[in-house]
Design brief:
It is built from four helices and 14 strands. It is α/β, with parallel strands linked by helices and 212 residues long. The strands form two sheets. Strands 6-5-4-3-2-1-14 form a seven-stranded mixed β-sheet. A seven-stranded mixed β-sheet has the order 7-8-9-10-11-12-13, with helices on both faces. It starts with a strand and ends with a strand.
Amino acid sequence: MQLTHLGHSCLLLEAEGVRILIDPGTFATGFAELTGLDAVLVTHQHPDHVDVDALPQLLGNNPGARLVADYMTATKLGDPWTPVSPGERFTVGPVRVRVEGGTHAVIHPDVPVIENVAYLFGTAAQPNHLLHPGDSFHVPEEPVAVLALPAGAPWLKIAEAVDYLRAVSPEVAVPIHQAVLAKPEMHYRLLEQLRPEHTELRVLEHGVASEV
């Protein structure tokens, strides 16, 4: 399985000939020009996870892509977006996707909580391989190999990121959601120092596909 980090929470997943784009938001770059996508998945409605102004170009370049989002986002975007809820499963070619989570992490008690789904990706050879939690601290029931780990956000402090990393305890953690940080390297150093002993923290170079 290959991952390309296109900034913030946007990841391009490639496995067994399938290409899936996750969370093409306003802080990501280089995704609208992509072609050959089999699916575009969105975790929730915030602009840093779905850039509605960039969608026409993205979807125009990928007319056959399956479009999936949480119910609130899919309702706002309209056809042909398909709403999904926690507990649902679907496939994109040989890639299996399980929908988990359900709610966005609390930003402040005065800010309404919205829907947020997490996506757990796997194949027959690599089940439960990659978890993208969106903006949540969702911990799946089964161990996962790779965690897309939020590193900085209005709803997140570094101690919570460390505790979440320890709770999921993956083989590899890939930092995402870093665009709000002036110096993300500071957070990366703390995550490296405080990670579980068996977990590798792997910071992906922007736009470069990496085997995970």
